[in-house]
Amino acid sequence: MMRIRFKKICWITLFCFVSAMGYAEEQEAEVLETVTVTAQKREENVQEVPVAISVFDGVELEDRMVETLDDIAKYTPGLTIINYGAAVKYAPSIRGLYSDYTSETSTAGLFIDGVPVTNGLGFDATLMDIERIEVLKGPQGTLYGKNTEVGAVNVITRKPTNETRARITGELGEDNKRILAANISGAIIKDKLYFGVSGKHYEKDGFIENTTTGEPVDDREHNYGKIYLRMTPTDKLEASLISSYIKYDNGGSTSGSPKAENRTVSNDLDTFNKSSVWSNSLTISYAFNDSLTFTSITAYRYFNEYLANDFDYTSDPSQKFHVFADSKYETLSQELRANYEVDRLNLVSGIYLESSETQSDKDRDTARGFKDNYGESSTDTIGIFSHLTYNITDNLSALAGLRYDKVELEASTKHSSENELSPKVGLTYDLLENLMTYVTVSKGYRSGGFNYLDGYSETYDPEILYSYEIGAKGILANGKLSWDVALYYMDITDMQVNVFVDAQNINKVNAAEATSMGVEASLTYQITRGLNLFAGFSYNNTEFDEYNDGVTDYSGNKTTFSPNYNYTLGMKYRAEQGYYASADLSGYGDMYLDLDNEYKRPAYELVNAKIGYETEKYDIYLYAKNLFDRNYDREDQYYKYYSQPREIGVSVTYRL
């Protein structure tokens, strides 16, 4: 195993060396561009933000062949996306904490153009015409509220401007992969009204054979569209309306039985996933003067989970376990925010309102009979927040934030109310002109919910986390190298854990405490004009301090779905003559899959590569994902989740 990994590391290192030698012209390297983010709900240089954050702009997303947030995780220290096999079942794991497939809430929040996604149903979001993605690590409760316990992901669409941009992209790959995507944007009325339209069709044959029919069971297909309207009627007023829709027409899950041969199932049910998501956001901002800006963000999201899966993976009637879902999730939110900046003070204050309704219809047809699981629930949230930064001296700044959230939950005759404060305090100090250090203490939480089975408490409480973090960020080599490092320690109490009533029914209880600690680091180095190196690494250790379910004492065991490390190393070369080449190596450490720490996914690594030729009008690339066809299946006592095989393909882009 070590020999195989060593060969792959040597392979990418050789590529980096050859690329550098092939471009050894005597010329001054470009400096890195300043990266502006809105992580703290105001525009800032990323090097000045006291948060561990990974940022990807539109060019990087294309260079690294990022199609969904699952692809982002390979390049983000401390982030893992857990795939549960179905196309809409993804869950983020950040710094050792994750949300399992039974959770109605998430440990990390996703915000797509201001639309909040605070459960796992959305982390497969299609990424198209994106300006920037920000992955914030550590509690973000002060500014983002509930269910951002260990982080938040911001996805920001590129704004249309006076410049007319139009492009069309076609892609062909293994397993009959076919993509056709196009977007156009520009001005309707110069300097006043702008538009953007984008669309994408995706198809790919499955790689898992159903031995009952001889056909693949996991074909993938979806259609996606997005409309962006932007107005700037005056210098002070700006309004943006973004609406997107995606419709899936997929086959079944990419999971199987541990007893089955590799990448096979024996289903006797025609499985499918025909879910859809409709998202909308309206953002209005008005600058009263250079110091005060008011922002309103209205968001609406409708998700229809419509699918059928065969989870017994056999044609044996005595083992039948078929699951059907036709559930609907609606969320309407409103944020009103004021940004005030004067002299040494930066202040962000606002109010957040959210109303969510769920109609959960998840039926089970098993060998023991048919069970209709239908339930309706609603959640109303109000949050009041304020966050300030005060520059005490030219080098020393203090930050403080506080948020109050009140959450009301209703389900049938059940009612639950939560009141949580999310404080944050910290200091930043510029040791040198291009070296910033910081220390923060913050609280995050994950909201509670309901149990629907007899014999347990009707409700479970919020999960609480306190984080202690120190970090540093800097620029070296005359602006050509940027780096950052963060060390953290987190205490988790009232941890939400599962109690298995039987093989098919789960309740949640607040029965555990845990500790998480680790380090994250990354760097980007512009070696020469066109030649760029990037690297990232994280180490995490998360384990239960207390957890006894009445049968087993798990104290001292590692938490599940938390790799002990992940890393990335890569280089890309873009020549003025149009030639392009890139390669990257990413890997994850061991990850336990069960509380007993008996089952685990071993460490693995993946290599991606891409070469091409770029001109003003068109680009053509040959690419490979998982170049060495590495198998990294995840297998526990009950299920095997198949990893994606190698994909080699070609893409062509034409700009009008």
Unreliable stretches: 9-27
Radius of gyration: 25 Å
Which fold name fills CATH's third level, the topology? Maltoporin, Chain A
State the share of residues found in helices, binned by percent: under 10%
Estimated structural class: mainly beta
What is the number of domains?
A: 1
SS strand fraction: over 45%
Mean pLDDT, all residues: 89
CATH top level? Mainly Beta
Q: Give the biggest beta sheet.
A: 22 strands, antiparallel, barrel
Q: What overall form do the CA principal axes indicate?
A: globular
Task: Specify the number of helices.
Answer: 4
Quaternary structure type: single chain
Task: Produce a short descriptive summary.
The chain contains 4 helices and 43 strands. It has 656 residues and is mostly beta strands.
Task: Describe, in plain words, how this protein is organized in 3D.
By secondary structure, this protein is mostly beta strands. Residues 9-27 have low confidence and may be disordered. The radius of gyration is 25 Å and the shape is globular. A hairpin with a 4-residue loop joins strand 41 (634-635) and strand 42. The relative contact order is 0.13. It contains 4 helices and 43 strands. It has a 22-stranded antiparallel beta barrel. The longest helix has 21 residues, at 2-22. It has one domain (2-655): TonB-dependent receptor, beta-barrel domain (Maltoporin, Chain A).
Task: List key phrases describing it.
mainly beta, 656 residues, Maltoporin, Chain A, 22-stranded antiparallel β-barrel, 5-stranded mixed β-sheet, single chain, 4 helices
